[in-house]
Amino acid sequence: MWGRLSGVATPTIRPATLSDEPALARINWRTWSPISEITPRPVPETPFFGESTRPEQCLIAEFDGQSVGYVRLVQPIPVASVAHVRQIQGLAVETHVRGRGIGGALLEAAVAETRRQGANRLTLRVLATNTNARRLYERMGFVVEGVLRGEFHIDGAYVDDILMARGV
């Protein structure tokens, strides 16, 4: 458990539970953007948890008593040769609380959880159009390891997919 960070008005980061599903679905719906997503916008009633997303894969951020963000951390593929790797497959922070260290706190918690799980490498993929996220990842020690040029076609334009990683 990560608890409260030092300082005033900081987020609390904790493991998600099934009871967090309504809040996570709300965050997922409200933070969706073509700048950061390759999938169609979810409808408000879309369940957050399902076959590919389970509570134990998610950490949730609370700020001023409200759920305001999450990070989803998984083993990229279920084979022994990548057991040392975890991948961030979703990071979202409500717009009204951005710039308050919540994204950074979620990433710090993801690094700690990666280490706790016995892995030593953390990866993620980010759209080239998502410049704010890319800057955050760089500040948190992630480096670009690859670029898939024109990997996605979004809103009439080809968009690069950037692979970033760091050790833990």
From TrEMBL:
Domain N-acetyltransferase, residue spans: 11-168
Supply the Pfam families for this chain.
Acetyltransf_1
Keywords on this record?
Answer: Acyltransferase, Transferase
Gene Ontology MF terms: acyltransferase activity, transferring groups other than amino-acyl groups
Q: Supply the CDD domains for this chain.
A: NAT_SF
Membrane-crossing segments per the record: none
Q: What is this protein called?
A: GNAT family N-acetyltransferase
